[in-house]
Amino acid sequence: GSKVLKTKRLFDEFDQNGKRAADRETMVKILKHLSAGISDEDALAVYLYADLDNNGEVSFDEFLENNLLTLLQIFEDFDRTRTSSISEADMRALFRKVDPALDDNDIR
Fold first, then answer.
1. Which of 11, 70, 94, 105 lies at a 20 to 30 A Cα distance from 35?
2. What is the model's pTM?
3. Is the pLDDT of residue 40 over 80?
């Protein structure tokens, strides 16, 4: 099925208060469901990237606006060594592929 629908289901499943937003811990769980190989560290980096308004939560809309499904797919493509961990340089290249406007200051 559609990854967007799968993501929506995960948000609904983990969302205890009906806000369709995920805090840090929940977001890591959702990312691990969507990309089995992702490490906690990389999932946290994705969460921090996606929390656009820095309110400590990633809404379903923020998740989609940030192209996180694309990001996870690229992550899997980048993870050539199958270590489920990518270097900082790879992470920078990955974020640039998703958003070419980013510079090194945006990606820390």
1. 105
2. 0.68
3. yes
